[in-house]
Amino acid sequence: GDSVTQMEGPVTLSEEAFLTINCTYTATGYPSLFWYVQYPGEGLQLLLKATKADDKGSNKGFEATYRKETTSFHLEKGSVQVSDSAVYFCALRASGYSSASKIIFGSGTRLSIRP
Amino acid sequence: DAGVIQSPRHEVTEMGQEVTLRCKPISGHDYLFWYRQTMMRGLELLIYFNNNVPIDDSGMPEDRFSAKMPNASFSTLKIQPSEPRDSAVYFCASVGGPNQPQHFGDGTRLSIL
What we know:
The complex is a heterodimer.
Chain A: E1 3-6, E2 11-14, E3 19-21, E4 23-26, E5 32-38, E6 44-50, E7 56-59, E8 62-65, E9 75-77, E10 86-93, E11 104-105, E12 109-114
Parallel strand pairs in A: 2-12
Antiparallel strand pairs in A: 1-4, 3-9, 5-6, 5-10, 7-8, 8-9, 10-11, 10-12
Chain B: E1 5-7, E2 10-13, E3 19-24, E4 31-38, E5 42-50, E6 53-56, E7 65-71, E8 74-79, E9 88-95, E10 103-104, E11 108-112
Parallel strand pairs in B: 2-11
Antiparallel strand pairs in B: 1-3, 3-8, 4-5, 4-9, 5-6, 7-8, 9-10, 9-11
């Protein structure tokens, strides 16, 4: 079945460091791919998305490129801030389903940024 | 716009009691999802509705859990009787249309003593 695998955390970086959180997926067809972020005490929020191969999603300095050849959607940011400390979830929505059908989430990666 | 609203934010109760969690989706959204989040199991989809009708409840852990959506603006998740292993954060999310993201509430943190 469809699945998402992301790097285990926690990831701890210093402020202004470069961030990569790896995500790979298994799915048939052409799923849509997402990164969600969860700040302490809050629900998940959509950070960025990509709906077809080679699309790049971007938001708040974060980027991820939909790579079908490597079935990956790695999250990157050039210079992290303390306010980026959160849990990040990679997710997919399978193709061929209703566009509002269930989303499959990865296990989440906790990111902590030191001042 | 008001987001997805869940209540209560925190619930502490004793084992064996009935627990009812509530969710108000964003107006106009026709899909509603209930999730459970724990450290051990991560984020699990419990059940989801489309136009108030349950579509997939395969994630509901056992018969002690039930969910209803009596109208487009309200859903409940009930646990009866509750057990300590039900302690988790429960999230509700709704979706508004094609290619739209899921919008999550802030969750209910449930502790069963």
